[in-house]
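Propose amino acids for all 64 sites.
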């Protein structure tokens, strides 16, 4: 079974550290952040299996 996680606020700080840890533990990680450049940089730093998504989770339409 493959495991995956979506981490919001993963462009920096605790969110980024959480995404990195989950990836190290074998999860496919979706890096979600309101800042597209930060999300992309975090996903590239994680490497294979990481996907960057620009999303403001406080905006329901953006999440959909």
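Proposal:
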């Amino acid at each position: 079974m493959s495991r995956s996680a979506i981490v919001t606020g993963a462009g920096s700080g605790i969110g980024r550290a959480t995404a990195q840890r989950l990836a190290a533990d074998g999860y496919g990680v979706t890096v979600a952040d309101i800042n597209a450049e930060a999300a992309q940089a975090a996903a590239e730093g994680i490497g294979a299996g990481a996907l960057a998504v620009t999303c403001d989770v406080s905006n329901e339409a953006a999440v959909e």
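Helices lie at 13-24, 36-46, 60-63. Residues 5 and 29 are 5 Å apart (CA to CA).
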